[in-house]
């Protein structure tokens, strides 16, 4: 439906507003309505005559005809139209304050949808109470700032359409709202929400050339200038955004195709803004410079029209002047602006001095400020090589310092320093602990971001970066032995610093994507082992160390001819495996958990390799993992379940007699996991068990393959009782795997699944469904279909639809179950749907199942489930009712209706 | 008065129980029976002897007061109180005394259990000692080493201690006030403030900022110190106690899970409380609920019980438990549920209850005596077992040396909760003393880790350091003393305002000084002459006050003075300026008046009348009060 414009034909309807006497005084005070009548009394002559023929909700058969055309209903529901006068009256009444801001925000969202979809003028004319509200708020009274702000924003929204703007202008409502006479000069202006509403109202309003004239006439632009320095950050930021918007608007339209070569040819409004920016850039006050830079950044970021080129041409000398100051003012905003200019296709291609300015900025800014600029430059698609080299050198400076201070091999240093950066000493770059830690963390994070990008500098100095990262980690652990004083200071700053350790380990993990000299890789493994072994490693550092270790092991070259770990990695593993048991016994649960996660990853990756298997089986790890199934911390139990699932899948589970059960019979893992599924008080371990069981079923695990039906039946029975919806949903996943294995499935349905050895498809449908009936899969699925948690019901619905589709592929008689039996099942299902799930269905014959499946409206159910459960609560009508109810209930109860 | 805080370290020589080593030192034939060799190390086979506090600098008989910081540093007290002529007072908190007594009692008990007839003394001969291998040849003052004290001496020493509470102000001879403050390290451990009216010295030793069982360290009271003497920092600055506790638990669990036993050589009080608390929380997660924990010490029962009754000396959390009422330490529950059992020795009930695998806490942490020796013998041969060292006072390698070769695993998890250098830096920033005084070792990185600039005290102004046996002058001078004025004397004063806000009054009084307290008392009234006595004895004159001369102030304006002289008939007056003032020359009268800033002299030859006239003229220009 195209939006209704003032110059389009409006659908027919009964006119009512021309005389100004047909307003229904259904609510509100007489004064309130008098204002509305006065404002509406003068319909602008420019508005087409048909504008008055608007369908009025509830206005009889003619109106119904209007709605029949489909326009009116888009504008507003009749029910909402009926509630609107009462709402406006409530809003206009200072004695009935609206307690909840979110109501007003939702109302504005709703009005926005309406005004974007149709004519605002029609909306106003259909609902004169809105105009009444706008007039009413202008009266000097004790109205809440929220309502005033709401009204300003609503007025702006309505005036976004030019015809409505002119309509409101006729009543001089807009100058009264946004001009000097409005809230601007009043006491209400002290409330930030009113100032914010004023700006947002103008932001909505400024959509057409008429609006520009209005802004110029009412002197709004000067007010916006002053609001840029508002005490409220939200207001200040919005003021800046509005300036950008006005500038863009004023240079659009007729001037768009032919931007003046000189800004002198630009519209007055644009010139005024540009002059203000210039003045701010010349100012000695940093806040003003920041404001100007932010406006320019946003402008160049959003608009790539040719006029931006003219603007930058005029302002770039002023920006360049900022670099001559010491220290450079508003450095962060300057960096943002320069990057914004560099990213703009219009500016970067034409601006001759841009790269020089960037280079100059890089060398003028402090290392902390220059880092983001360097990263930004390196991320640019197009950029001179020299500048990239300079930026990279700036980015690498802190690491160069580290290498220098710790007297690394000269080879490493040269390749970092050789990128063109001036040598900087530790004392100047990393003068204090806070500066040192902050800069190193940022540098490592920047490099981590840069590493995977295709436009990263080439050649990538992998070896020096590895060397520097390893050195930083050693400085942090206190194991480095710097020989210089600078190194000693660095060591004193970094030792035990968890922040730097985390950042360095993250970056070290990222560096595993590249290769490095053998001795450096050996150093990497050595430092990782040091961290994994050290009792001083904090749990978060340890987790990062495990992650980095796994990545490095993954990237280590495989032995030729087989996919086993290379000899060096094996050697490392031999040293690591004695550490792992200690970590699994840590009193800190986070450490036990990280250890188990690492183990699970390792088994998943190398569980099939002989060398790894031997090393793992020779360690105490498998046994300890099994003991952690009884850990007091649920996260650890969950991780232990996942690890045990992997161990068992790979045949790595050992069953020695434990000291606690000497000579006792070990429980089977299946039984143990079932026990967890039935009895564990926390959801995480139970979910983990369901994942393991699903995987086992998919892989044809030996414990499962022996008696799959019994296994599935038992698991589904336990899962159906579970209070955690994710366990029930995972139960459906397991049911689906079983179903697919039983019926056979098209391989395209789930491309990521490992294809298990599927039994030959049964010949008849009944035969095919019988195993499903035996494991009571249908009882589980039907229960899930009426589950109170929507994801479970949706999943079940999908499963049953899939099943129904599968049954259709079989020939022969279908759905021939005896009628009474089918009816009884259907009756039971209806009771379940009604919430009474007490009675079980019992064993169902395949024929009955098919019949029931056929008779059910699963598509309809799926559609219903697809709708959000709060669709009723989210309707505009409900919103209006809630606002009214809240206000009505205010006297008794302050409860929030949301 | 002398006031000292004594920290006593003890050095051990070897004690052999059940070992029989053949002498392999023919060159030391004279003392070969005293020396034993084991795995390349030489040991002295003797009754344990202890190195006493050095007495070169201080004659302990002249020491007036000993302030004890915590129970670990009072172990040599009997040597001082019983054998040096010490007659002063010892101040300590109640838990310090009680737990100190337990530690000494355990020590005496351990030593007395294995009596040896004689101490080895031949090896102490300097000619022989210098030929011995390290560390024997480096042992200092071996001739002063003494055998352990007896319980009688312990009791006698402890009877000389005066109990004090935190923040209690103790007046020492009127000269200074001393106050113990919680140091957060152990039950009843204290830092001491020593202050006069105008100076404040804080003695911070063995303090902890970690949240363990004792009351937290009182930092606020240390503020405004002129000097802060800082010592007793952690001995293992690179070992973080949290990490060490983690290591302890992990190794313990791994050993026990493999069917091995764990031996923890430890003191009967202190870190053991925290370890038991950690294990209380840990054993369930580690699946160790069925593993017995044994605590064997002659004072085990007392130690566990004492810890529960010193509620006011505990951290806040534990204090609140007492009001619930619950035992502050969870080891009560471990005992109740039979998970922790304690025995005075391994004879008796223990041998019948003993079940393996198990965890045993016992002493002595030096491994030279006590029940731990038996467990080392019992379990040392199996690699399934583990000995875990937690006490930082001893080198575990030295402790283990006589037991080599050893199959059992050895883990070193020193748990030292005392201040590390980062914490010291925070503390000094918070307390901001004018000067910090500390041992020299704290002002430079440890020799083995010379690059670790973080392992030293870094403060501004730099800390003043001292070496062994160095006498250090503290950087402040006592400039003022506080003097009290008796009320009746104060009543009689008549202050005169000299400048706005400043008044002066003359005081005539008797300064009475006793116990370093100074009091101004009213002067005795002049004795009324009695009719019968015509002549007073010379001694009676002394307390009499002479007629008080007024005090003078102000300056003499020379010109006006000259005018006054002329007015009074003096002529031929000449004024000369000098460096310090003026000289007024009355040539005619051959008289000289020397006017200086703080004195005026009238020099005339034998003309008393003239001098008095001139004096009166001078006085007219001065204020009197």
TrEMBL record, chain A:
Where do the segments described as Disordered lie?
1-29
Presence of keyword Nucleus: no
The answer to keyword Ligase applying to this record is: no
Compartments annotated for it: namely:
Cytoplasm
- Print the keywords alphabetically: Cytoplasm
Q: Which Gene3D superfamilies match?
A: Leucine-rich Repeat Variant
Q: Which family does it belong to?
A: Belongs to the BRAT1 family.
- Please identify the protein, giving its name as recorded: BRCA1 associated ATM activator 1
Its organism's taxonomic lineage begins at: Eukaryota, Metazoa, Chordata, Craniata, Vertebrata
Q: What gene codes for this chain?
A: BRAT1
TrEMBL record, chain B:
What is the name listed in the Swiss-Prot or TrEMBL entry for this protein?
Integrator complex subunit 9
Question: Which first-to-last residue range defines the signal peptide?
Answer: none
Q: Which cell locations does it reside in?
A: Cytoplasm; Nucleus
Q: Where is the Beta-Casp domain?
A: 272-400
This protein's major location comes to: cytoplasm
Q: Which InterPro entries match?
A: Beta_Casp, Integrator_9su, IntS9-like_C, Metallo-B-lactamas, RibonucZ/Hydroxyglut_hydro
Q: What is the lineage of its organism?
A: Eukaryota, Metazoa, Chordata, Craniata, Vertebrata
According to the record, the residues making up region (Disordered) are 515-540
Keywords, ordered alphabetically:
Cytoplasm, Nucleus
């Amino acid at each position: 439906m195209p939006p209704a414009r003032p110059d389009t034909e409006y659908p027919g309807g009964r006119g009512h507003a021309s005389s100004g006497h047909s307003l229904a005084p259904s609510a509100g005070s007489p004064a309130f309505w008098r204002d509305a009548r006065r404002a509406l009394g003068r319909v602008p002559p420019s508005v087409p005559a048909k504008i008055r023929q608007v369908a009025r909700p509830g206005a009889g058969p003619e109106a119904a005809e209007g709605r029949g055309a489909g326009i009116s209903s888009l504008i507003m529901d009749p029910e909402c139209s009926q509630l609107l006068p009462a709402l406006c009256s409530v809003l206009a009444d200072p004695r009935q304050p609206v307690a909840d801001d979110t109501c007003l925000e939702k109302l504005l969202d709703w009005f926005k949808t309406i005004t974007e979809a149709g004519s605002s003028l029609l909306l106003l004319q259909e609902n004169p109470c809105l105009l009444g509200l706008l007039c009413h708020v202008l009266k000097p009274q004790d109205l809440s700032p929220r309502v005033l702000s709401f009204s300003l924003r609503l007025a702006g929204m309505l005036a976004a359409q030019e015809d409505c703007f002119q309509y409101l202008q006729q009543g001089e409502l807009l100058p009264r709202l946004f001009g000097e006479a409005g809230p601007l000069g009043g006491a209400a202006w002290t409330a930030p929400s009113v100032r914010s509403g004023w700006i947002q109202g103008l932001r909505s309003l400024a959509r057409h050339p008429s609006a520009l004239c209005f802004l110029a006439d009412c002197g709004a632009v000067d007010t916006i200038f002053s609001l840029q320095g508002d005490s409220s950050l939200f207001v200040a930021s919005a003021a800046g955004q509005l300036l950008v918007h006005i500038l863009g608007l004023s240079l659009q339209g007729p001037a768009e195709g032919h931007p003046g070569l000189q800004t002198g040819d630009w519209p007055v409004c644009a010139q005024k803004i540009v002059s203000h920016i210039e003045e701010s850039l010349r100012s000695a006050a940093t806040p003003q410079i920041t404001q100007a830079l932010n406006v320019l950044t946003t402008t160049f970021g959003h608009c790539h029209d040719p006029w931006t080129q003219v603007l930058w041409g005029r302002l770039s000398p002023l920006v360049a002047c900022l670099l001559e100051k010491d220290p450079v003012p508003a450095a962060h905003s300057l960096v943002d602006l320069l990057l914004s200019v560099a990213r703009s296709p219009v500016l970067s291609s034409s601006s001759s001095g841009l790269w020089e300015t960037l280079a100059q900025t890089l060398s003028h800014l402090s290392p902390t400020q220059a880092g983001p600029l360097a990263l930004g430059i390196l991320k640019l698609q197009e950029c001179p090589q020299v500048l990239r080299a300079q930026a990279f050198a700036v980015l690498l400076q802190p690491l160069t310092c580290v290498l220098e201070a710790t007297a690394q091999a000269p080879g490493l240093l040269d390749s970092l320093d050789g990128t063109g950066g001036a040598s900087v000493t530790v004392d100047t770059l990393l003068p204090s602990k806070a500066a040192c830690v902050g800069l190193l963390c940022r540098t490592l994070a920047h490099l981590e971001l840069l590493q995977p990008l295709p436009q990263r500098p080439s050649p990538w100095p992998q070896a020096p970066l590895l060397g520097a990262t390893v050195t930083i980690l050693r400085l942090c652990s206190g194991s480095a032995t710097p020989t210089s004083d600078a190194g000693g200071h660095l060591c004193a700053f970094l030792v035990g610093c968890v922040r730097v350790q985390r950042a360095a380990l993250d970056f070290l993990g990222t560096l595993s994507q590249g290769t490095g000299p053998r001795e450096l890789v050996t150093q990497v493994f050595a430092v990782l082992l040091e961290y994994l072994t050290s009792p001083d490693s904090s749990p978060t550092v340890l987790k990062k160390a495990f992650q980095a270790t796994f990545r490095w092991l993954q990237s280590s070259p495989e032995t030729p001819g087989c996919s086993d770990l290379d000899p060096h990695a094996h050697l490392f593993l031999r040293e690591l495996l004695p550490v792992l048991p200690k970590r699994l016994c840590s009193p800190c649960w986070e450490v036990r958990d990280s250890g188990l996660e690492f183990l699970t990853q390792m088994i998943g990756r190398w569980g099939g390799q002989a060398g790894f298997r031997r090393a793992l089986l020779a360690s105490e790890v498998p046994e300890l993992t099994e003991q952690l199934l009884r850990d007091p911390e649920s996260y650890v139990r969950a991780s232990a379940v996942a690890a045990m699932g992997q161990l068992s899948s790979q045949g790595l589970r050992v069953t020695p007699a434990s000291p606690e059960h000497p000579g006792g019979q070990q429980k089977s893992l299946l039984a143990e996991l079932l026990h967890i599924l039935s009895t564990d008080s926390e959801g995480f371990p139970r979910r983990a068990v369901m994942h393991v069981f699903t995987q086992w079923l998919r892989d044809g695990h030996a414990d499962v393959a022996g008696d799959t039906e019994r296994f599935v039946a038992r698991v589904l029975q336990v899962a159906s009782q579970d209070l955690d919806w994710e366990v029930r949903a995972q139960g459906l996943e397991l049911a689906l795997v079983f179903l697919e294995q039983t019926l056979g499935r098209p391989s395209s349905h789930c491309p990521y699944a490992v294809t298990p050895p599927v039994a030959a498809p049964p010949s008849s449908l009944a035969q095919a469904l019988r195993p499903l009936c035996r494991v009571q899969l249908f009882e589980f699925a039907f229960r899930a279909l009426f589950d109170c948690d929507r994801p479970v019901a949706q999943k079940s619905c999908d499963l049953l639809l899939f099943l129904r589709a599968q049954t259709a592929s079989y020939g022969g008689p279908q759905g021939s179950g005896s009628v009474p039996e089918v009816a009884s099942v259907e009756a039971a299902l209806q009771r379940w749907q009604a919430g009474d799930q007490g009675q079980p269905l019992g064993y169902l014959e395949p024929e009955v199942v098919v019949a029931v499946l056929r008779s059910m409206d699963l598509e309809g159910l799926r559609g219903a489930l697809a709708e959000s459960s709060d669709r009723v609560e989210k309707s505009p009508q409900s919103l209006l009712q809630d606002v009214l109810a809240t206000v009505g209930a205010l006297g008794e109860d302050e409860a929030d209706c949301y | 008065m002398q006031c000292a805080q004594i920290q006593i370290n003890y050095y051990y020589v070897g004690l052999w129980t059940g070992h029989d080593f053949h002498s392999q030192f023919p060159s030391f034939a004279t003392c070969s029976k005293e020396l034993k060799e084991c795995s390349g190390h030489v040991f002295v086979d003797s009754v344990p002897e202890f190195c006493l506090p050095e007495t070169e600098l201080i004659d302990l008989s002249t020491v007036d007061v000993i302030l004890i910081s915590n129970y670990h540093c009072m172990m040599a007290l009997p040597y001082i109180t019983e054998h040096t002529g010490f007659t002063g007072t010892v101040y300590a908190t109640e838990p310090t005394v009680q737990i100190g007594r337990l530690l000494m009692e355990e020590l005496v008990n351990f030593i007395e259990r294995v009596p040896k007839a004689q101490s080895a003394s031949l090896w102490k001969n300097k000619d022989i000692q210098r030929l011995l291998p390290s560390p024997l040849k480096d042992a200092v003052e071996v001739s002063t080493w003494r055998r352990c004290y007896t319980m009688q001496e312990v009791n006698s020493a402890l009877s000389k201690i005066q109990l004090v509470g935190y923040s209690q102000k103790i007046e020492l001879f009127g000269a200074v006030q001393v106050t113990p403050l919680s140091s957060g390290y152990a039950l009843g451990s204290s830092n001491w403030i020593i202050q006069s009216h105008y100076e404040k010295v804080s003695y911070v030793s063995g303090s902890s900022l970690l949240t363990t069982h004792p009351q937290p360290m009182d930092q606020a009271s240390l503020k405004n110190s002129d000097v802060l003497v800082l010592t007793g920092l952690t001995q293992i600055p690179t070992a973080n106690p949290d990490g060490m506790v983690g290591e302890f638990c992990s190794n313990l669990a791994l050993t026990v899970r493999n069917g091995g036993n764990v031996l923890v050589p430890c003191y009967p009080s202190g870190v053991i409380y925290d370890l038991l608390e950690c294990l209380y929380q840990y054993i369930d997660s580690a699946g160790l609920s069925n593993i017995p924990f044994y605590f064997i010490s002659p004072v085990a029962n007392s130690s566990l019980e004492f810890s529960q009754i010193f509620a006011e000396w505990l951290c806040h959390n534990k204090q609140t438990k007492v009001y619930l009422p619950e035992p502050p330490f969870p080891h009560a529950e471990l005992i109740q549920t039979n998970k922790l059992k304690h025995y005075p020795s391994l004879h008796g009930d223990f041998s019948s209850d003993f079940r393996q695998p198990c965890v045993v806490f016992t002493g002595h942490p030096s491994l030279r005596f006590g029940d731990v020796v038996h467990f080392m013998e019992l379990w040392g041969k199996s690699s399934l077992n583990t000995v875990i060292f937690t006490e930082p006072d001893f080198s575990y390698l030295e402790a283990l040396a006589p037991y080599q070769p050893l199959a059992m695993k050895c883990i070193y998890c020193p748990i030292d909760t005392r201040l590390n250098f980062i914490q010291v830096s925070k503390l000094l920033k918070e307390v901001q003393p004018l000067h910090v005084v500390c041992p020299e070792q704290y002002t430079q990185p440890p020799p083995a880790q010379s690059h670790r600039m973080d392992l030293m005290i870094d403060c501004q102004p730099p800390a003043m350091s001292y070496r062994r046996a160095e006498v250090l002058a503290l950087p402040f001078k006592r400039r003022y003393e506080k003097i009290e004025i008796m009320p009746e004397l104060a009543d009689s004063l008549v202050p005169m305002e000299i400048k706005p806000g400043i008044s002066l009054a003359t005081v005539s009084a008797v300064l009475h000084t006793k116990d370093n307290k100074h009091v101004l008392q009213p002067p005795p009234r002049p004795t009324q002459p009695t009719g019968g006595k015509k002549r007073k004895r010379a001694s009676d004159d002394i307390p009499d006050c002479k007629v008080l001369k007024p005090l003078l102030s102000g300056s003499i304006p020379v010109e006006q003075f000259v005018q006054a002289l002329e007015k009074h008939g003096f002529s031929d007056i000449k004024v000369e300026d000098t460096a310090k003032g003026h000289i007024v020359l009355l040539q005619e009268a051959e008289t000289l008046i020397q006017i200086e800033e703080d004195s005026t002299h009238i020099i005339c030859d034998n003309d008393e009348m003239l001098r008095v006239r001139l004096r009166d003229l001078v006085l007219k220009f001065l204020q009197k009060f």
